Amino acid sequence: MNLHVVIGFGPAGAATARLLAERGHTVRVITRSGRSPEPGIEHVALDATDSERLTEAVRGAAALYSCGAPPYHRWAGEWPPLAASLRTTAEATGAVLVMLGNLYGYGPVDGPMTEELPLAATGTKGRVRATVWEQARDLHEQGRIKAVEVRASDFFGPGVTDGGHLAARVVPPVLRGKSVSSLGDPDTPHSWSYIPDVAAALAEVAGEERAWGRAWHVPTAPALSTREMVDRLATEAGTGPVAVRRLPSAVLGLASLFSPLLRELKEVRYQFDRPFIMDASAYEAEFAVRATPVDEQVKATVEWWRERLATAG
Prior knowledge:
The protein is α/β, with parallel strands linked by helices. Helix content is 41%, strand content 15%. Strands 3-2-1-4-5-6-10 form a 7-stranded parallel beta sheet, with helices on both faces. Strands 7-9 form a two-stranded parallel ribbon. It has a two-stranded parallel sheet with strand order 8-11.
């Protein structure tokens, strides 16, 4: 089996690495601090912006997965050197650069988002993500690297904790039957990308040459509002109904004074104030991965959180 190198071990990186290992591949995970080895996965401590060292770690790999990201409030300064190192490494090694992207690059749009939309975002984070992909695509078109991007909406599922809008701030209170707060309108439709589906899509396009050179949307279940998702979580947990309240703008503004994450969310608040719907039909017309049914997503997520909270005491 082939060597696959995964940058980052957050929810998407961990799910991707473990899926590849389950399929019998040799997997090497690169993070700044490293981790203890686990079955089928080698963990290496390395700064991925160091292209010389990264190239040595990736040499011989079939694919290089970009699943890591700088801290949310430092994207503008830290994404460009990280992305440049990944491109340099992909060119030096010949590994397919499989980039995990998101939907920020489109900016606010009317109607469902498809891959054909222009990357017209004007905000800092949207432009950073758009530029990172455009630079990789340009090198692919020049024949210097092989690159593909897989774009996901907000993560949902086992392993998604502090960074998810339906995660640490929502699921533990739901398991206790407590009310939860929503960023933006809790009744507007929203696409939620299930982490195992994200990993499956990344792994699939890495081996599909016809996928390379463009961006694809992760197969994602039909959009459901925050309230609908909370209702499903509460029903699965047996704690419903649970009240869902919109977080007042004044409270969000005050909290953002003390939280870099909340300050940065102002730029993408539109995603929760209007329908935010991703269309993955182009991917589904070409490849095998399909979105996991929502009921299965919810069941697995509730079980994962129950185990996590029980272990934490």
